[in-house]
Amino acid sequence: MMKFTDEELIVVKKLEILKNEAGSHSPGIFTFRQKLPEVEIKIDACFLSNPYATDLFIEYFNKEILETGRIRDLLECYPSQNGVIAEILADFLAINPQHIFIGNGAIEIIQAVIHNFTEKKIMINIPTFSSYYEYVKEGVEVIYNELSKAEDYSLDVDRYIAKVKFYRPDTIVLINPNNPNGAYTRIVDVQRILDELWFVKNIIVDESFIHFAYESQSYQLVSLSNLVAENPNLIVIKSMSKDFGVAGIRAGYGIMKQEYVQQLLSRGYLWNSNGLAEYFFRLYTRSDFAMRYDILRVKYIVETLEFIKELRQLPYIKVYPSMANFVLIELTNGIMASDFVAKLLISYGIYIRTCDDKIGLEGQFIRLASRSRTENNYIINSLRCCLEMNVVLDLIDEKAI
Fold this sequence. Notes:
The chain is α/β, with parallel strands linked by helices. It is 45% helix and 14% strand. It folds into two domains: 6-39 and 291-400, Aspartate Aminotransferase, domain 1, CATH 3.90.1150; 79-286, Aspartate Aminotransferase, domain 2 (3-Layer(aba) Sandwich), CATH 3.40.640. Helix 1 packs across helix 14 and helix 13 (287-311) runs parallel beside helix 15 (373-400). Keywords: Aminotransferase, Pyridoxal phosphate, Transferase.
């Protein structure tokens, strides 16, 4: 059990209140600064983003927007409509622009798709990103496909296909890699799902973390985006926040059949992006930026693999397999996840996510994001100190008894 001073216990209580107010999501940095200014966050390892990509975006933004005075255009002028930004992406993605829907973050696309196109029954793997079941409309049946802890919460494709055929939902959801555990389903298996479940009206594949996944030694990017044209029931959702480190901009896109895009545009999503998001999308499609980003993407993957390897050397935890930029960690020494998160934040300034609210997890879990190499080293050392100190305190308590 983690030990806290009386002053620290006050902070622990405030953290508990903040988390409860945030619901199934985690309070952000600005919320912390407003409501818990006595706590200094040195490393944000709760929110999932590539810090090297953020640095790259800032470099371009400073040079092209701030130093040139073009910031006035982004602030004073209306951004382009949804369809125009879709045209910007189309050539880069090699996708028909009429299949592209731009969202104010992936969360808006998730809500729009589920609210508008899920009619009677949806199947969702658990544990997973909670918004997929939170946004289900009243009257829609939710079927949970519980992933097995014994199988590291990975997807058994055969059992999954059989279960979908049995329940016949009109919508299924596959996050690949999955959140919160980072388990990855290979493209050949996802293709099997598409082929055998052709009767499902909506097959949602969320690729928000796909830039961190790979199937070759060269870490080449894999995606299902180009399969939408031949699979009209496929809906690919992509957040830009994680792999490009720009969560504050709120940028995402969905690829789906033209009929769905037109329905959404006619229902209030015509002008839903801001000027910063439009600038990002235009930058994202440029060859110079894309080339430099891909170098940083591979660098970040390699460092994340090293980070995960080092995490597995730490005592009293189990690190689950991941092909994302984060890991699911189970605390195996009787430590409460909420106490562990609080101790790391208070003593070391490291902000991570407790997974107490994740449906489908059995045990005490935290989710930890990979950061820069320097930050990861600090995280490793802090975790080791925190874990070992807890064991020492337990031994002292046993001797006292």
